[in-house]
Amino acid sequence: MAGRGRQAEAARNDLRLLQAAHEVFTTQGFDAPVSAIAKQAGVGMGSLYRRYRTKEELLQRLCLIAMERVVDALESALAEPDPWTGLEAYVRACVEGRSGALAPVAGTIEVTDEMWRTSRRATELADELVTKAREAGALRPDVTTLDVSLLIEQFSRPAPGPPGEEHQRVKQRLLAVTLDGLRAPGTTPLPGDPPSTEWYEGRWRTAP
What we know:
Elements: H1 2-28, H2 34-41, H3 45-51, H4 55-78, H5 83-96, H6 113-135, H7 145-156, H8 165-182, H9 197-202
Helix pairs in contact: 1-2, 4-5, 4-6, 5-6, 5-7
């Protein structure tokens, strides 16, 4: 019983650390000290370092969790009978979960094999979802999977100033406008070539 109790306490501490780290990094920047994370989580620095030896390990864990949540959102979206309903639900779920909030860390940390595997699984599912919506005539034909992913990144960024109800209302209003812009047939041609997978994944490759 004592062992299970310690495991449960460790799990609660880890959850508090991850929640605090996500909040601190996405509001104060990725240069924020880990001491700010420990303070917000209400744990000691020893507890933090026993779980995550470096800031990079902590960021890697946060990125992996974000990718896993994207996979979950995509699997739920693909289960929707209506392709547009599924696509819209996917975008809204990712925006609500701020799945793209950690994108600015790209290129500053090493990407683990597990991160690459999860990312590629997410890409496969997202391609399937976008293809379904396009073939159903719901998504404009010139919108790509990466367009949708980058859109989610934009809405995941924190707005200036303290968060509040008005900010959430504005975000939902602009998201509704943006989702309408994704719908077929689309009246304004999209400028330039679509983003490439090589460019998108290349952002995460650290400099030698």
